[in-house]
Amino acid sequence: MLKLKKVTLADEAALYDYIVTVSPNENGFTNEYYGCPRENFAERALQVMINRSLGLDLPEGHVPDTHYFLWDDDVVVGWFRLRHYLCPSLVEGSGHIGYSIREGYRGMGYATAGLRLLLKEAAAIVPEEEYYLRVMKSNPASRRVMEKNGGYLHHEDDTHWFVRIRKDSL
User: What pLDDT, on a 0 to 100 scale, did the predictor assign at position 169?
Assistant: First the structure.
C-alpha cells in the first residue's frame, strides 16, 4: 500500500538506505546528504530536515520546506520536498515541489501517485493559488507526471520547463 510520510527519526534505517544513495543533483533534485556517514545521519540529515520544516536553522535565502517519503509497504520508493511558500529565487527557480524516485522504481507510476498525495498535503500549507514546479527538458517523463496531476506549461527557457498546477484544478 502506498503512503506518503513526513520525515521522522523513527524511520532512520530505511531513510538512510535511500537518502545517502540519491546523487547530489539528480535531474535538478538536490541532495545535500549524499554519502552522509551512518553514525551521525540522524542529527546531520533527519533532524536538519525536521528543523527546516519548522522554519528553524534555515540557511540564508531559504524558506521552510518539508520532506516527505513515499513508501510502498515497507520500502521507501520516493522522496518529495515541499517548500511552504515562494521567495523571489524560487519563482523562477525550483518552485514549491521537487521529487526523486528510487532507481528500480521509475516508470511504474510512483511519481504520479506520490505527487498526487503531496498536492493534498500542500493544500493546507502553500498560500499561493498555484504550485510552481520546474523540470529539466532532459526529463520529459517528469513533465508528464506533472501534467497527469493537472499541470500546464507556464513558460520555458533553454533548459527548463516551468509548470504550474492550480489549486482549484485538483
Answer: 83
